[in-house]
Each structure stands twice: as structure tokens, then as C-alpha cells.
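Form 7-S
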Amino acid sequence: MPGMLDLLFLKSGAPGTENEGERAYLLMLEKASMLIVLFFILMVVVALDVPGWLGGLIVGGSIGPVVYGHYYINYIRRPKKRQNIDVQEGKEKRKGA
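Output:
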């Protein structure tokens, strides 16, 4: 699991970081999608008619996984894939040489 500093470095190399205006919109969309997911979780809790304390516990406990999931999908998975592809290409070059 990456540390917070690793995550900041990955975010700085993410697509869309060349243009600061575009990056601002991407960050707003990222936060909005996190809030929408949390809103859906809240709506499921309300629809199940659970007690208030349990609903707060469920929504509060889901904040961490939702945020980490978004960061994983947007910033961690892509560089890991690129790194694995580079490693595989390096192995193939060594085999062929």
C-alpha cells in the first residue's frame, strides 16, 4: 500500500497535469464523484430504514474505502500497469538479446 507521499507523486504525474485549468476541473470531478458515491450509500441506508446511529456508522465507515478506491483507480492502477508493461518489455528484450 502506498504512502501519502507516494500518492502525491503519482497525482503530479497523472494525465491532465500539463494544463492547470484542466487539472482543476478533473480534481473537481473527482471530488464530485466521491460525493455522489457517498450520497448513494446514504440513500441505501435511508431506504433500508436503519437506526440513525447505524446509518452514521455505515456512511462514516465507507468514506475511507470510497476515497481510497477513487485514488486507486485514478492514480495508482495506471502507473502500476505501466510499470508492469515496462518490466515485461525489459524481460523480453533480455531474452531476445
